[in-house]
Design brief:
Layout: H1 14-31, E1 33-37, H2 38-57, H3 59-63, H4 70-84, H5 90-105, E2 113-120, E3 127-133
Antiparallel strand pairs: 1-3, 2-3
Length: 141
């Protein structure tokens, strides 16, 4: 029975899926827009939105700068450690807490990512999709 098992398996083991989501979320935060298969894109939304919530939760606290209380500092450290479970690079972490979190702070709950179907991949005809952060311009590399 499949009780309580949510999410797509994508013919991968659990550690492989965890690494896949971490790499895709990191790439999304780094570049602002990525192209992947439609199934991965739809599942990626859950992981990206959950990680963005850690940046949103401490956006106001980070504005205080040097005036943070020890409790505020603990909250920031906790959020960064939780986000670090998914986000792999320092550049993506910085962007999450300096740009992405404050940007989505005012927008309300959820809907931080957008999935747009694009094409069929040549070779295996997999349906491809573009995943982007809503309202943020893609990062210039």
């Amino acid at each position: 029975m499949r009780h309580g098992l949510s999410g797509r398996q994508l013919n991968r083991t659990a550690p492989h899926r965890d690494a896949l989501w971490a790499n895709l979320v990191t790439a999304l935060f780094t570049h602002g827009r990525i192209e992947t298969t439609e199934a991965k894109a739809k599942e990626l939304r859950k992981h990206a939105d959950a990680t963005i919530k850690w940046g949103i939760g401490v956006a106001d606290v980070l504005k205080k700068g040097d005036k943070m209380t020890p409790a505020d500092k603990g909250k920031v450290v906790h959020a960064k450690r939780m986000a670090r479970k998914v986000v792999r690079t320092d550049a993506a972490m910085d962007r999450l807490f300096t740009e992405i979190g404050p940007h989505f702070k005012a927008s309300g709950k959820g809907g931080y990512t957008r999935v747009l179907k694009t094409r069929f991949r040549r070779g295996d005809a997999a349906s491809m999709a573009l995943v982007e952060l809503v309202g943020l311009a893609p990062a210039v590399d």
